[in-house]
Design goal:
The complex is a heterodimer of chains A (206) and B (220). Chain A has 206 residues and is mostly helical. Chain A contains 7 helices and no strands. Chain A has a domain at 68-206. The relative contact order of chain A is 0.10. Chain B is an all-alpha fold and 220 residues long. Classes of the chains: A mainly alpha (206), B mainly alpha (220). At the A-B interface, helix 1, helix 2, helix 3 and helix 5 of A face helix 3, helix 4 and helix 9 of B.
Chain lengths: 206, 220
């Protein structure tokens, strides 16, 4: 074999590599938000993109509802992302907390989007682990299936707790919003069921 | 949804587009239309150049969205490989690349395909970030810290993982040449090295990759 050339087998392997991947949907939001802010894009020319495969009869929400929903989603994702990051042990929550507190609104909005990406990505990765558990020790993972199941359960609990905490903050941000109240009620019920009758309904966040 | 339909309904909110995925097999995928702005007769899709002109002249967000949907899946995969699979870093690269591209559309001379240009911007940002963080990307033969085996001897790895284990500079040359199909001259221009250096680095990168994959084949 000539070391300077790929073998036919190697060529095939390279050609078989996937050519595409999907980033998180928050990437688009971050980009278009920045470009709108600096005047490169005009939002009036925007097209609402319907998700492919969605039903034809989808109706677009009114602007106030969209704004409220966006705000709610952002706050929920921010809190969730922060807690997930804490759980994963990749950052000091204290440091992250101080860093967030010191930022202005524009940076905070960006942090919300970044945290949202991290949160969704981490959860998606956890979800991807589940099918691999049946492969046993030879399935390419260093942890045992029992360990993985335990860690996935921890991740899920952290994710729900994060959603709950973020929704509490959201209810402070938008008091009286019936949608937020409903989400909060559902999450409280879920936590109450999972943690038993002794579960605390008040939580100190950080 | 057709482009014309997309342009009819204004919106003030951010709507994340879906990324339609497919598994490409060729070394290079062609952009829709050609670099002179002619639409593709088979698909009747607007060309990259026509879309870029609308973004540059009118700030047309729908046109930008079409470009984004068309090119992000490919360039994001490249960014993912470039960063060794770091999703957050890859998304940051993509964000910077698209923002820089949008700002520079009016100066783009269309001597290359749009995707190639976008990929080059992402690559430049990767190198800038590496420099800023003190992670110098070696460009001279002999400066490489090449892994000789996986962290866990005997553990099976695939080509994707082997690429991710290569030092960043090796990875960049290998990706550009063997995955994306760039010539040594193009790689040299983008990385600021000579064609000869690009060739020698590709040789070293392939040897390192074979050493990594060899561990797999010996234990398979």
């Amino acid at each position: 074999m000539n070391d300077d050339e790929l073998t036919p087998e190697e060529k095939r392997e390279f050609e078989d590599l996937p050519r595409q991947a999907a980033p998180s949907p928050f990437l688009w939001e971050r980009i278009v938000h920045t470009l709108r802010e600096d005047g490169t894009l005009r939002s009036s020319a925007a097209a609402p993109v319907r998700r492919q495969g969605a039903e034809a009869g989808v109706r677009w929400l009114r602007p106030w509802a969209v704004a409220a929903a966006s705000m709610a989603a952002s706050v929920v994702l921010f809190g969730s992302g922060a807690l997930m990051g804490h759980w994963m042990g990749t950052r000091s929550s204290e440091r992250a907390f101080l860093a967030v507190r010191e930022q202005d609104a524009a940076h905070l909005a960006q942090r919300v989007q970044e945290a949202g990406s991290a949160y969704v990505t981490a959860l998606a990765a956890l979800g991807d682990l589940r099918p691999a558990l049946g492969q046993g020790p030879g399935g390419g993972t260093a942890v045992t299936p029992a360990q993985a199941v335990s860690e996935i359960r921890q991740g899920r609990e952290a994710a729900v707790a994060a959603l709950y905490g973020a929704t509490v903050e959201l209810s402070r941000l938008a008091p009286g919003d019936p949608g937020v109240s409903e989400v909060l009620r559902v999450l409280e019920d879920l936590r109450f069921r999972e943690n038993g009758a002794g579960a605390q309904r008040q939580q100190t966040w950080y | 949804m057709g482009f014309a339909e997309a342009g009819r309904q204004p919106s003030n909110h951010l709507t994340a587009p879906d990324h339609t995925l497919s598994e490409g097999r060729g070394l290079r995928t062609r952009s829709v239309g050609d670099s002179r702005g002619m639409p593709n007769a088979m698909t009747d899709q607007p060309s990259d150049r026509a879309l870029a002109d609308r973004v540059a002249s009118d700030g047309d967000e729908a046109a930008f969205q079409t470009l984004y949907l068309r090119h992000t899946p490919n360039v994001y995969r490249f960014a993912l490989r470039l960063t060794g699979g770091d999703v957050l870093e890859a998304e940051d690269l993509m964000q910077d690349a698209w923002i820089n591209a949008a700002h520079g559309l009016s100066r783009f001379e269309w001597r290359s395909e749009f995707r190639t240009w976008l990929m080059g911007i992402a690559l430049n940002r990767f190198r800038e970030k590496a420099r800023a963080s003190g992670r110098r990307i070696p460009t001279v033969e002999g400066e490489w810290d090449v892994p000789t085996e996986t962290e866990e001897p005997g553990k099976r790895i695939d080509l994707e993982r082997a690429i991710g284990l290569l030092p960043p500079g090796f990875r960049a040359v290998l990706l550009l040449h063997d995955v994306e199909g760039f010539t040594h001259r193009e790689i040299g221009e983008r990385l600021g090295i000579s064609e000869g250096t690009s060739k020698s680095q590709l040789h070293e990168a392939r040897m390192a990759m074979r050493r990594l994959l060899g561990a797999e084949r010996r234990t398979a």
